[in-house]
Amino acid sequence: MSEISDKQMRRALIRDLDLRRPAFAAAVKLDAQFTASQRGERAEFRSGRDTVFQIIRLMWVSDAFSAHVAYRMRTELSRRGIPILPRLLHRFCMRSAQVSIGEGVVMQPGIYIVHGQIVLDGLVEIGMGTVISPWVTIGLRGGSIQGPVVGNDVHIGTGAKIIGPVTIGREALIGANAVVTHDIPERVTAVGMPARVLE
Amino acid sequence: MRDPRFRAILEERKRLLRETYARQPGFTRAVVEDLHVASFHRGEFFESEKASAPYLLFRALRLMWVGDAFFAQVCYRARMSMKAKGIPILPRILHKVSMITAQMSIDELVYMHPGVFIAHGQVVIGGVTEIMSGCFIAPWVSIGLKSGSVYGPTIGHRVFVGSGAKLLGQFTVGDEAVIAAQAMVSEDVPAGVTVAGVPARPVRSK
């Protein structure tokens, strides 16, 4: 059996991640609908033209949404093997809303980033219907590249940190400034530093 | 617009925006007060009441040059006074500028009295929130909403908000209170009291 080099491992990993990522147009449409509904605006788009108009309007009024669309475009371009442009789009994300999302992150469609100012890194998966508030870090603990897996419809409060290979159950609520280093079950509220589950 | 709830929310937002625009302070007065407070906190105190207009302009331009946050704050003031006058597009560009220079994201519903010091930037302020004069806002602070309401806190005069503090929900912070670093506040804070922790508890009072 021949040795598998680090480079081959990395390529296989990236290919695997690319397969798990959603398609650009559908993902942006769902993001726009979820963002609009969370902003208290009309979330039903009437036609294709209305969808495009609403996406452009949201990109104009919301820094975080423009960064979000740039991130979606970046993953689409890097999947197609286009050089340079993905890195420029990442710079745009940082400039417009300080959204720093690493290459190992899989964001399912329909996620609301409230204002920006977030860091997501490592092999992280974020489920549909998740709300990510400002100053949130979802990332790694030293010694491993496996990051958290966040379920669907999770609400992550302002300044919360979720670090290490943990799983957040669906519809969980992470309180503001919580530091999560252990698994959180479904449909519970976790607060504090380190985070504990409220009864 | 099929859902009547959305219509009600939009109408409410429009009404709140009209009210906020109507009470915005004048641009010049706001910037002069901000300059006064910022200079005081930076240890560059000067008597801005007695200063001449060109000297004030010089001080303001200097502080805009040396302080990212002050530059962003002036952009915010200009943006709000333009919004109040109904000028389109430019306010949004000024918002982008204040995001790029000091990561300062302040919602249009916020009423910030003249004379607030934002130390380095990196703040998110949202919702129907009122911030009185003389407040000190450190980096990584969020002042805003809990989900399900558009009403944020009211922060009294000369309150110190420490680095990384989060003030979320509808409540009042009394005058000269101190919010410690990384505190998570969601209930009333009496005047002159220091609160710390997640959730915040009083640790000291004057």
Q: Could you describe the 3D structure shown?
A:
Chain A is an alpha/beta fold. Chain A is 37% helix and 21% strand. A six-stranded mixed β-sheet of chain A has the order 3-6-9-12-14-15. In chain A, strands 1-4-7-10-13 form a five-stranded parallel β-sheet. In chain A, strands 2-5-8-11 form a four-stranded parallel β-sheet, with helices on one face. Chain A is globular, with a radius of gyration of 17 Å. The mean pLDDT of chain A is 91. Chain B contains five helices and 15 strands. Chain B has helices spanning 4-23, 27-41, 53-66, 68-85, 90-102; strands at 104-106, 111-112, 117-118, 123-125, 128-131, 136-137, 141-144, 151-155, 160-161, 166-168, 172-173, 178-179, 184-185, 193-196, 201-205. The mean pLDDT of chain B is 90. The chains are: A alpha/beta (199), B alpha/beta (206). The interface between A and B is medium-sized, with 30 and 31 residues.
Fraction in helix of chain B: 25-40%
* Total DSSP helices of chain B: 5
**Percentage of residues in DSSP E strands of chain B:** 15-25%
**Biggest sheet of chain B, in brief?**
6 strands, mixed
The end-to-end distance of chain B, rounded to whole angstroms, is 53 Å
Poorly predicted segments of chain A: none
Q: Based on helices, strands and strand pairing, what is the structural class of chain A?
A: alpha/beta
Topology of chain A as a string of helices (H) and strands (E): HHHHHEEEEEEEEEEEEEEE
Specify the CATH architecture of chain B: 3 Solenoid
Structural class by SSE content of chain B: alpha/beta
| Tally of individual helices of chain A | 5
| H and E order of chain B | HHHHHEEEEEEEEEEEEEEE
- Biggest chain pair interface: A-B, 30 and 31 residues
What distance separates the N and C termini of chain A? 53 Å
CATH fold category name of chain B: UDP N-Acetylglucosamine Acyltransferase, domain 1
What does the overall shape of chain A look like?
Answer: globular
Total domains of chain A? 2
The count of domains of chain B is 1
Mean pLDDT of chain A: 91
Record the strand order, biggest sheet of chain B.
3-6-9-12-14-15
In this structure, how is the largest beta sheet of chain A organized? Answer: 6 strands, mixed
